[in-house]
Amino acid sequence: MMSCALCGTNILSTVSTVDAKSRGNLHVVLCNGCGLIQQDPIPSEQDLHDFYAHHYRADYKKTYTPKPKHIYRAGMAALDRLRFLKRNGLMGGKLLDVGAGGGEFIYLSKRSGYQSVGVEPNIGYSEFARSQYGVDVRTGDVRKVSDTYHVISMFHVLEHLAKPVQVFKTLWALVDAGGYVFIEVPNIHAANASPHNTYFKAHIFYFSSASLIACASPYFEPIKIDESANLRVLFKRKPQESPMSLPVREEIAHTTKRLLKKGWLEYLFIGGGIFKGILKLKRFAQEAHFRHKNAQTILHGIEMRYRPHTNQEW
C-alpha cells in the first residue's frame, strides 16, 4: 500500500480513477492525514525523466518546439509573474528558472534587470530557448545546478515531480542566505477548472496552499500567497532546516469540503466556465496578430503593449 509523499500515512481516500485527457485509468487519492492529493502509485523518477525529456511537450502541446501561440501565452504569463516579483520588492539579482520551457520568462526577466539562467528537461524546448533568445538554458533538471541564486522560480513544475519535499531541500541548498523561491502550481481549491480536466497523468500532485506550504516548511517560510487564479507562493529561505509543519485539521477538512463542492454548477457560474468560449475567441484574436512573427518579435510586441515603463508602475 502506498504511503503519502508528505506525511507518510497510508490512510488514503480515492478522489478519481479516470485520466481527464486520455480517459484511461488513473488512481488519484487524498491523504486523510495531511490533505495532499496525489497519484497512486507515484511514478518512478526515471520514468518521469524519460517522459519529460522526450514525450511531455509532444503529448500535451502537440509540438516539439513552441508555436507562436505558445510563445504569446508564455510571454503574457512571464510579464504577470514579473509584476508579482516586483510588487513584492524583488527588483533584480541572480535568478534561476527551473523548468524554463521555451525560455520566455528568462528572456523577459533579463530585459527587466535580472541575471537569469534556466534548466529545462525537454530537449526541443531548451534548444529553442538557446537558439531563439540567446539565453542560458541548460538541458536537464535542477540536480545539474551547482551555483547559488537570490531567486529561484518554478512555474507549473512542482506538480510534475515525484518528491516535492526533496525538491524544496534541493532548492534550499541553491538559494543564497535571505533568498527566495517563487512557486506557481494549479490550485486544487480553485473553482475555474473544468470538472472534466482536473486529474491527468502529467500531474503527480494537486496542491492547496496548506499542502504546498507544508512541503516547503522545513526549508522555507511563505511571505506572500496569491490564490486569485493559480496558486502562487513566494517563499523566503530559512537560515537552517526545521521540523516539518503539517496542515492542521481545519485545513484538511477544507480541502475535503472543496472536493465535494467542485462540479459543473460551481465551474460554470462561480468559476466563470460559462464565459470560457468568449474568452477563448478573444485570446484567439490577440494571438492571430502574432501568428507569423518570430519569437523575439512576439515577446517585444507584448512587452510594448503590456509592460509598465518604469519600476514604480509595476
Describe this structure in words.
With about 325 residues, the chain is an alpha/beta fold. The chain has one domain: Vaccinia Virus protein VP39 (Rossmann fold, 3-Layer(aba) Sandwich). The chain contains eleven helices and eleven strands. The strands form two sheets. Strands 6-5-4-7-8-11-10 form a seven-stranded mixed beta sheet, with helices on both faces. Strands 1-2-3-9 form a four-stranded antiparallel beta sheet, with no helix packed on it. Strand 10 and strand 11 (about 230-235) form a beta hairpin. The relative contact order is 0.15. The model has no long low-confidence stretch (mean pLDDT about 90).
Counting structural domains, the number is 1
Question: Which structural class do the helices and strands define?
Answer: alpha/beta
- The CATH H-level homologous superfamily: Vaccinia Virus protein VP39
End-to-end distance:
49 Å
Keywords:
314 residues, alpha/beta, Rossmann fold, seven-stranded mixed β-sheet, four-stranded antiparallel β-sheet, 11 helices, 11 strands
Topology:
Layout: E1 12-18, E2 25-31, E3 37-39, H1 45-54, H2 56-61, H3 68-87, E4 93-98, H4 104-111, E5 114-120, H5 123-133, E6 137-139, E7 149-155, H6 164-174, E8 175-185, E9 205-206, H7 209-216, E10 220-226, E11 231-237, H8 249-261, H9 264-269, H10 276-288, H11 295-306
